[in-house]
Structures are given as C-alpha cells and as structure tokens.
Design brief:
The protein is mainly beta and 569 residues long. Among the domains are: 122 residues, no CATH class; 187 residues, Jelly Rolls (Sandwich). The strands form 9 sheets. Strands 29, 31, 32, 34, 38, 39, 40 and 42 form an 8-stranded antiparallel sheet that branches. Strands 30-33-41-35-36-37 form a 6-stranded antiparallel sheet. Strands 2, 25, 26, 27 and 28 form a 5-stranded antiparallel sheet that branches. β31 and β32 form a beta hairpin. The longest helix has 4 residues.
C-alpha cells in the first residue's frame, strides 16, 4: 500500500501579502526496497508540462523491476493522481541512484540515471555508478536506456538546455586522488579532495554525448573531504554558462563557459554555503532564484543543513536579496540519527505556469515538497510576538528557551541558563538587508546573568559558542543591566546606560553596512555604536545566547520587529 509522506506544516506569517512556502502533499510510491546501499535518495522530480499538468516522477522497484513512475496534478501540487508507470528498466539493471530530469525545447523529457551495475564489491572506491540516459519519444514511449559515461558519478543536481539547443549535464566523479596520491606541481602542496567535476553535452537531442576535457577541482580543507562535487548550471543573459560547485570551503566555487564545453578554473564565489548543493532556477521575469543552505560552523556537512534559504538576483547573480529560511528540518529538535544523512537540503526547484516554484528536498526521514511564491522574498519587514509559538525560531540543542505567560498577559520567550550542562540560546531569521533595524521589547529579570546579542548574515546553531567570532555585530548585556562590546567606534564607547530590572524596555539595533556600524538605542536614547567585525552579506539573523550563570533568572522577550526597507530605497 502507498504511504503518505509525513508532513510538517510550517507556521504561516503574513508578510506584505505573501505567505511562507506551503507544504504540499504527495504520495510516496510503493517500493520493495530501501534506497541503494550508498544512501542515495530520490525525492520527487517536478516538471510543468507546456499547456499541461504538473508532473512528479519517482523511482520504485516492484518484483525486481525498477521503474520510473509519474503522478500528475492540475492544481499546482495540492492534489495528485495515483502513480502510474512511465518507463521500466531492464531486469538486473542494477541499483539506480537519484536521477535528474530535463524538459527540452521540443517537449521531450530526459532522465539522467546513476546506475550501480553491482559488478564490484567493497567500499565506494571499488564501485561504479555509471551515467545512463533515457528520453521520452511521446507520452507513452521512451528510448532504451543508454550508458553515456562510465566511472563513479556523484549525485546529480542539474541538467540544462542552452539557447543554442545544446543539452549540458554537469556531474562530479570519483578520482584516484588521495592524500597519498594528491598530484604533482602546485597540487603536491595542498589537497583537492577525491572528486572532480566536469560536463557532458549533446547537440542532437541526446543521441550522442561529448565529454568536456576540463577536470574542475577545488581545494579541500581536510584530507578526508570530497572536493568539487554536485555542480549546478544556469545560462546567463550574456550567453555564458555559470556553474556553482559544492565544496567544503564554506562557500560555493564557480566556473564559467562560453559554450558548455570548455570551462574556466573554479574560483571562490561570494556565496557562503555549507557543504551542500545549490538549486538554481531562472524565473519567468528573468530573475534568478537560488535555494541553498546558508549555514556555518557545524561538524556535519561543514556547516549543517537545519534550514534551507532562498534569495533572488535581479542582476544575473551579482547581488541577492531575501536570504530567508524557507523550511525547517522537522526533526531539528531531536538529536541527529547516528548513521545516515539528516537535515533539509538538495532542492530541485521547478517553475510552474503561474510563476510560482515547486521544490522537493532530499531528506532521509521524510521527503517534503513545497510551493514558493518568489514575491515573498521581496518582503522588507517581519515580526514575531510568540502568539504562534516558536516555529519561526531555532531553539534545538539548548535548554532554557521556553514560552510562558508574560507578566502583562501576552506570551513571552523566557531565556535563561537553566542547566549548567546545557547551552541556552535562540536564533531568528528575517529578510536580509545591508541597512535596517531590529526593535526588541525585553525585560531583564533581577540578576539576569550575561546575555549576548548578535547580528549576523548566516545561520549557525543556537548552541554555537563561537558565534561572537562569526557575528557581524556582537554586544552583551550584563547582570547589572549595562552594555559592553569588544569593538565600539573609537571615541564612542557604549555609554553608562543601564536597563532597569522588572521593566519593559525597547532596544533598537540600527545597522548600516555602508558605514560598517550599528547604533544601539534604549527607549529612544542612544546607548552607543558598534563597528562591524567584517564585511558581510545582508544582515538577516538575530542571535541570543545566555552566557552565565546557571542560577540567573534571565530575560523575557515579548516582541521583535525587523525592517530592512532602507536597503531598497
């Protein structure tokens, strides 16, 4: 029997007439086996047919036969048909990893399939994951599967057709490179990881394929990391092809091509990212949508995947706005599983006929799908008053961040160091802006303990005890109610302005990254100015963390208002 995917509904917050991305339900198809042995997964692949329904493709194996099945929706993914077979693969074909789908300009659907023929045993260094291609002839007929590359291909994230008609498929592949065999010349002095990236292209609709001679490599921060993996492509307005490459360096690397065949050497991009792939999509109005994990400072995936983010570029990737959390790991309040992947990542966005975007996510406990209206990323204000709970805050891995009735009635967040063995903190995302302000309505309890406030531009966990080194602005409120900071503007230290206990105060943090400063005011009186610790992406995170002591009563937070409209005037 088919099982419904367990779905977790995001709390909706109305912002400028737009809602948060909406979870859509889609049946998980019946299969007689779990994902292949190397842990590859296959979330639904979505494609909007021209003048037709939305389709979702999934793999299943029944009676030893692997097949691609399809479900259709005529209401933008709200309801779906039952799965039917699209095409079957031959018996004994092997394990099939997560495929990639492309709808070409002639209405044909192309599938690119990593296949393990099971001819080798042992760890992945002895295995093969060859790349195969299948193309639709019409709605009922498909070409026989054809092997187009032999080796160990990594997880596929992208396939595009250029304006010239050329189809280009980027992929990463396992090499013989190891720390003990890292190469010669400059590579002997560093390590480029086990994987490289490259492309295949076809100029005849998939009948024949040509491999690029360029092997794209990126540095690796440790001798056990992977290197240049899971590339994605987008054709730019000037005709160049842009490749974003997943790395372990804390950011995407990028390469460019004039034709999808020859590629420039990868260089670091300005886009901070955990060790996770990007999702790139050209919207109907010509803007670019980016979905990625804008996360840092976590051991898994070198930055983690608790939340994915989205941003829009109106200038072909030179600048971005939005930087908003679009989903949460539904199991983020539970410890990660001891084995296997976790978090929310691997978006494969598809454009709907009305301009909205549907995207699935690879996830090992559930596989959600969601609808996003890109206009939501243009919001410049956000508010939280805890009347809808804490779903828009990250409080996992901590204790002492709880909701309770406030002294005046409305629900408040009570932040305190309740257990000496556990950290206490909370993290809140808002629309990114180079200029803007936050207003916090807070009450300091007597003997509150030291509270650290941070404004920054990327996600890290609530228990990150090195966040002061990553934040753009950091200051503390001590147990006597006085402010302190390591980096005030020379000549203007934070003034001797104390926050009284047991009384609500309005604290405003107004930042301007063109001046690299943040002004702090309390109840309308200026308390001082902070200097930015570094250049940054748009500021989009508030971080609160209790420092000490365990017996302190902490602070109450009743409301936070964010406004970055000054960034877009």
């Amino acid at each position: 029997m088919s099982r419904l995917i367990i779905l977790f509904l995001l709390v909706s917050t109305l912002l400028v007439g737009q809602d948060r991305p909406k979870i859509v339900s889609i049946q998980r198809v019946e299969t007689e086996k779990e994902v292949p042995s190397d842990g590859r997964h296959h979330s639904p692949l979505f494609v909007q047919m021209p003048q037709g329904p939305l389709r979702a493709y999934s793999l299943r194996t029944l009676h030893g036969i692997t097949e691609e099945v399809v479900q259709t929706s005529n209401d933008d993914g709200n309801t779906w048909s039952l799965p039917t077979t699209a095409f079957q693969l031959p018996a004994g074909f092997g394990d099939v990893g997560a495929p990639k789908l492309l709808l070409d300009n002639n209405g044909h659907i192309h599938f690119f399939l990593p296949v393990n023929p099971r001819t080798t045993l042992g760890d992945y260094h002895q295995q093969q994951w060859n790349l195969w291609h299948v193309r639709s002839i019409d709605d009922s007929h498909w070409t026989p599967p054809k092997e187009i590359w032999k080796g160990y291909v990594g997880s596929l994230q992208s396939a595009i057709q250029l304006r010239s008609g050329r189809i280009v498929v980027p992929f990463c592949f396992l090499t013989e490179r190891r720390w003990s065999n890292r190469g010669s010349g400059p590579e002997a002095f560093t390590y480029m990881g086990e994987f490289s990236s490259t492309t295949l292209h076809s100029d005849d609709g998939g009948e024949s394929w040509t491999a690029s001679p360029d092997e794209l490599k990126t540095p690796a921060p440790t001798i056990s990391t992977l290197g240049a993996i899971e590339p994605v492509l987008l054709e730019l307005k000037d005709g160049r092809v842009w490749m974003l490459i997943r790395t372990q360096m804390g950011r995407f690397y990028q390469s460019f091509s004039q034709d999808g065949f020859r590629w420039s050497a990868p260089q670091p991009s300005d886009i901070t990212s955990s060790d996770s792939p990007a999702g790139l999509l050209r919207l109907k109005n010509g803007n670019i949508l980016l979905i990625w994990n804008h996360c840092i400072d976590f051991p898994y995936a070198l930055g983690g995947r608790p939340v994915p983010h989205a941003a829009i570029s109106e200038d072909d990737g030179h600048s971005w706005r939005g930087f908003r959390e679009i989903l949460y790991d539904p199991a983020r309040n539970e410890p990660p599983l001891p084995n296997g992947d976790f978090g929310v990542s691997y978006s494969l966005p598809a454009l709907l006929s009305d301009g909205k975007v549907i995207f699935g996510f690879g996830y090992y406990r559930i596989i959600p799908a969601a609808l996003l209206d890109p206009d939501w990323l243009y919001a410049t204000e956000q508010h939280t008053d805890f009347s809808r709970g804490l779903d828009d805050w990250s409080i996992f891995g901590v204790r002492g961040a709880d909701l309770e009735p406030g002294p005046d009635g409305p629900t408040v967040l009570h932040l305190l160091k309740s257990d000496q063995h556990w950290p206490s903190g909370a993290v809140w995302n808002f629309p990114g802006g180079k200029k803007g302000y936050l207003r916090l309505k807070l009450l300091r309890k007597p003997g509150s303990g030291d509270v650290q406030f941070g404004l920054t531009d990327s996600f890290s966990t609530p228990f990150d005890n090195e966040d002061q080194y990553h934040n753009v602005f950091t200051f503390r409120l001590d147990s006597s109610g006085k402010f302190s900071s390591a980096k005030p503007i020379p000549g203007e230290d934070l003034r001797d302005l104390a926050i009284d206990a047991n009384r609500w105060h309005s604290v405003e943090l107004a930042w301007d990254m063109t001046k690299r400063e943040c002004r702090i005011s309390v109840d309308g009186t200026r308390a001082g100015t902070l200097v930015a610790a570094r250049n940054s992406d748009p500021i989009n995170y508030l971080r609160l963390r209790m420092i000490e002591p365990r017996t302190a009563e902490g602070i109450l937070l009743q409301r936070v208002d964010a406004d970055v409209s000054a960034s877009w005037r």
